[in-house]
Every structure is written in structure tokens, then in C-alpha cells.
Amino acid sequence: MSKINDLYSQIIKNMGVPGLSIPLSAVKFYRKKEPLPDIVTAYIPSGLTLTSCQAVKQASLGDCVCLTKETIGCIAAAITFGLVDENQKEPMLGSRVYTDIMKDQSKNKEKFTPPCPSDFTKGIVYACKAADKPDFALFGSEDSGRYNSVDTAKKAIKDMMSIKPADTDAVFLYSKEFDEMDLEPDVIVLSVRPVELARLIQAYQYITGKRVNSSMGGLRVVNSDLIVRPYLTGQINISTYCLGARLIAQYDADRLGIGMPFKDFQIIAQGMEESRTGFPFHLYPGSDESVKEKI
């Protein structure tokens, strides 16, 4: 059993609700100067691309995924992860999940040119209506875009954390059961209900006394808010899932995300055990609702 699974089992056990399950995904970054193990490259998708939201969800279901510049399906996530330079003026080649949606709704599919990374960085993609770029819309001619102006989009993008310079070779997303190598993750992402989030924060504070601050936006939530922000800051972050997570990866309506460095996952597991009698989670209203739904 992997170390992650041991810690996860410790957390679930001390919640005291039989059958409870919280989706978990582990994330490991491989920068260009680091060797990429063969066992990791074995999980590079063949013949398809996946968004970061899809990959995180697949990892939580037990399917490991290795995202590279060639296999990531979302240009914004490629920027966030440092797989591509944010100012690159050439489109990323090949079919991509996110830009394929644009192409499918475009009035002239044959002449469609996908946006390049710099179009995202400049705010043009997210303010497609204001920028008069109908080909960058996701929902047809009436699409308002994600922001009301290019300036507003640029302001929002400025606060979306990303790895700079773009020196990432691969991002490995794997399940708690993965034990094929002694691998310590950089970040753990949990998909939680509010009642579960409350108990995790209580466990963390029991050990540390520290408050948990949340920085969230409406876009790039999984890749930027839940993975890269904890990776770069070394701090826990909480955020609701974004447009891509909800519509492309189909995250459940009652879930939000918490991302944390692995050290904090270890602290939470310890806190769950030591504070079990002071925070009787099994008595919290709704604590067993997700279990009842499965029966």
C-alpha cells in the first residue's frame, strides 16, 4: 500500500463514517533538468489529449495520467504548468479538447485557427466578445466571453499563478493506490463536500493553529488554484471548480477542491487522528449523505 493511501485511510477512518470516500489525486512535477522515469512515461495518453480537470478526475478514479506539452488538452493549463511559454505566438499543434470546442461551434470550421498561448495571456480568448474574436467563443454567437473586457481579463489572468519560466517537462497525476515507485507527490488535491472540508481544516488547525486562506477565481481553478498555487507558495488553497471542470470534466455539483503540499496532507492525517474525539464528524449533519446515495 502506498504512503498516500496509508494517510488517506487514516483520514477516512477517523471521520468515523463507514463507506465514506473522498476523491484524491496526487500531482508530481518533472522539470526539464530532471529525469522522467519510464514508469511515468508509460502513462502518457496515446492518441488523445486531456484537460488538467479531466486528468485530475481520472487520477481520483484510479487511472494515472502523464501530461506533456503534446498531450495536454487545455492551452491555459499548459501555460499554468509551465509546459509552454505564456507569450508563445504560434498555436499549439494538434487537436486539443478546449480549442476543439471552439472549432465545433465556429461558423467556418475549415478556416478555424486556434488561439495561441499569447492570446490567452493577453486576455483576448477570455474576452472574446469584447475583443471581437467570435472564433474564440465556447457557446456560439451569443457567448459573452468570460470577462466583460480585455482589461478585465488581463487583470484576472495576472492573479492566476503559473510556473515561470516554462521549464516543465511533464506533470504526473496519479491515484492514491499507485505504488509502483517510491514517489512523494508535490501536491495533493481532494474533491470535498463542505462538511468534509470543515473537518479537514479542523484537523489542520488542531496541529498548527494556522488559518487557511482561500484565493479563488472563476477560471483555471484546478491547474492554477488547486495545483500550482500550493506548489509555488507551499500553502493550502481552496477553490470552487471552474467552467472547464464543471462542463468538460463534469465535477459533481456538491464538490469543491482543496489543494495542498504533501507536508500539509501529512499534518491533516495526524490531526484527524489526534482530534477525533474533539470533532465528532459522524455527528455532523449530512456527514453520511454521500454514503447513503451509494446504497
Q: How is the biggest beta sheet arranged?
A: 6 strands, antiparallel
Q: State the strand order across the main sheet.
A: 2-3-1-4-6-5
Number of separate strands: 6
Average pLDDT value? 95
Range of helix content = 25-40%
- Which runs of at least 5 residues are low in confidence (pLDDT < 50)? none
Structural class per helix/strand content? Answer: alpha+beta
Which of globular, elongated, flat, extended, rod-shaped describes the shape?
globular
Oligomer: single chain
Element layout with pairings:
Layout: H1 3-13, E1 24-31, H2 38-41, H3 52-60, E2 65-67, H4 75-80, H5 97-105, H6 117-121, H7 150-158, E3 168-174, E4 187-192, H8 194-208, H9 221-233, E5 237-239, H10 243-247, E6 256-261, H11 262-274, H12 289-294
Antiparallel strand pairs: 1-3, 1-4, 2-3, 4-6, 5-6
Task: Describe the protein's architecture and organization.
- The protein is of the alpha+beta class and 295 residues long.
- The protein folds into 2 domains: 3-72 and 165-294, no CATH class; 87-158, no CATH class.
- The chain contains 12 helices and 6 strands.
- Helix 8 packs across helix 11 (262-274).
- It is globular and about 60 Å long.
Q: What's this, in brief?
A:
The chain has helices spanning 3-13, 38-41, 52-60, 75-80, 97-105, 117-121, 150-158, 194-208, 221-233, 243-247, 262-274, 289-294, and strands spanning 24-31, 65-67, 168-174, 187-192, 237-239, 256-261. The chain has two domains: 3-72 and 165-294, no CATH class; 87-158, no CATH class.
